[in-house]
Amino acid sequence: MGGTYVMSLPEEELRREERRLETVLERVEREIEESRVTAGGRKEQLVGGKRELWEDLVYDTDDWFEAAVQLTQQAQELSQHATSYRLAQGRSEHLQRLLSNPYFARFDFRETGSETDEPIYLGTMSIADEETHEVIVYDWRAPVAGMYYDYGPGPASYDAPDGKVTGEMTLKRQFVIRGGKLLAAFDTGVTIGDEMLQRMLGQGADDKMKSIVTTIQREQNRIIRETDHRFVFVQGAAGSGKTSAALQRVAYLLYKYRNYWEPEQVVLFSPNDVFNDYVSNVLPELGEDAIPQTTFYDYVWRRLRHVGDVEHPYDQLEYLLSSPEASDPRREGIRVKASLAFAERIDAYAKTLAERGVVFRSLTRKDKTVFDAAELEAMFYVEFAKQRPPHRLESMKERLLERLKELERKRAVALYRKWLKEPNYLGTEQELKRLGLAKAKKAYAPLREQVAAYAFLDVVGTYRRLLADIDAGGASFPVRAAEWGAIVRDTNDRLDASAALPYEDAVPMLYLLEALHGASRMNRVRHVVVDEAQDYTPLQWAYLRRLFPNAGVTAVGDANQAIHGVELEGGHMASAKAFPAEETVEIRLKKSYRSTRQIVAFASAMLPDAAENEPFERDGPPPDVTVVPEAAGESDFGRLAAERIRKLLAEGSGSIAVVAKTAKAAEDAYRQLAAQGVSASRLTKETKTFPSGIVVLPSYLAKGLEFDAVVVWDAGAGAYARESERKLLYTVCTRALHRLVVLAKGEPSPFLRDVPERLYASSR
């Protein structure tokens, strides 16, 4: 899917561009050689520094203070050598990539008051002439480069460090360069040319997301370069490029603040591990080091691992998608515990914990109590009562670690004395003492780890008291007192019966823990990126805001793809109470670039709010909707799905997703397709890497991903009928780039019946 490139420049102009490309590539090759020499020198310094540090570990001196100072200085120098080597090596690797494609665009700019046009070439890295030091290729993130994305030929301006520069853009040109060869060159207008975009979008899906630096649109560029507000929230249609824009924004911010920020000070929260793998190439393609990536669940699990295992949010979602809605206290509890009103109740309760309410748990070793819960409570409420609760917990930790040290010492002495009485032991008294201390430390290591993690604090017990004591009255609380009582009883039953903490309770527990001791705040983090932001609850937003007090936020999502399984008051995007209005900007992306016009029209017809989505004018065949009679057997349904998949393969689809509603349905689909001879991969919540080819997966794992073709496995009324599942079916359908096949068993979903028949091809 794609096509051959066509040159649209006059022959003479084309030859000039080819000669310039050769000149730039020669300069890149010289820089590669220079960077290799530099990296080699840095490596020698690093290796030599390590050797010297090792040799100097033994000093022929009695002045150990002087020796320690010298060692510290050497370690600092070694760290500097390591950083220099890493930077030089990284530059060399990026330069190697430039040999294939050193730049992608050009525009000519005539500054006001000047009579000459300056050609500006854009690439993913700046390149300068070694003799004149003039920039021959500008980094796409440079201030002057912003004009390329925001203007067409005519008046243009940009904000330089010393003020606004105005003038006229006299030329705007795009290139396709592969393997160091100029494959296409054409002039374009205000937006990135449709010819280039058509060819990029017409290609097949890949197993990694690519950077969009060559096709950034004006509205995406606004997101990328927004620095007037700390908090940027993007509501974007499916396929509008919001995730790509967010990652390009990270690259831009790391470039703009390169003297102040490090990559590890920017954190990405993504929906799952597969998505982490899918987007892992974007920043390295742009010459930036990868940033820390995690999921919100992974963070919650790590913080509560000493409390207990935590239910996976996808398991919670499976429950919501599979259980009946009527008279379900857990479903109501999930809704209430996600609200800002519940967060406010936790904050209010936390203020009372200085006087009462904190529950402690005894710490034991080999079934013997080492620190009793009553003793711990007395420490908190009597011995350290004059301190604020966070300081009390810190004082308790220090006191308990001191006592553990004393217990280790006593055990070491006991072991030493015991071994002295053993006549067969061969060794000196010093050896016995060292061995005894080592064994004692090992014996108490688990307890020391628990104390360091505040495991003496009974988070679950304190949370239970919160639930029992909470004031459920008032207009601001989402349920009445009687309904809240049913929720509390259901919660306690689940906490008693399950080894894992219910996910809807894990986050409030963390919020309570943070309100109590605040030890987890990440003050060094400069920026947080949240993808699939519509799936974060108001309480989770409040927690993130507290967790990263000094960080800006870029959050991208689509309210039409919210698949919590319960409806939350006010929606699922950021709460105005959590983020100050004067520091927050909301940006909307309406145009969808992923799917063909026919697929966008089909999916949008399911949602009234999606009617304003604007498809990019790329045509394809209409979606195929096939209804299978209810009486059809499992083998008939599997045979039909296999036929559709083989047809898609014959048409050239390289990646095909078979998307079922739940994990159980996906397991059934995988089994039925295997029986029909279809070789596919399964994608589950445990999958770490994005598979290629034919993939079978549940609906919620498809979010953020895209495929050449999507086969919706059973979109019948038996699968998608509840109003809360309307957005889920929409999300599934919008994963397709080129082809969409919808199979429905029995009566079609009511959401499909909302779609006009002219928007799809129907067969039965």
Automatic annotation (TrEMBL):
PROSITE patterns hit by this protein: UVRD_HELICASE_ATP_BIND (PS51198)
Amino acids binding ATP: 236-243
Family matches, as Gene3D superfamilies: P-loop containing nucleotide triphosphate hydrolases (3.40.50.300)
Signal sequence extent: none
Gene Ontology MF annotations: 3'-5' DNA helicase activity; ATP binding; DNA binding; hydrolase activity
UniProt GO cellular component terms: cytosol
Domain UvrD-like helicase ATP-binding: 215-596
GO terms of biological process kind: recombinational repair
Protein keywords: ATP-binding, Coiled coil, Helicase, Hydrolase, Nucleotide-binding
Stretches of the chain forming a coiled coil according to its record: 11-38, 390-417
Protein name, UniProt field: Helicase IV
The organism of origin for this protein: Paenibacillus antri
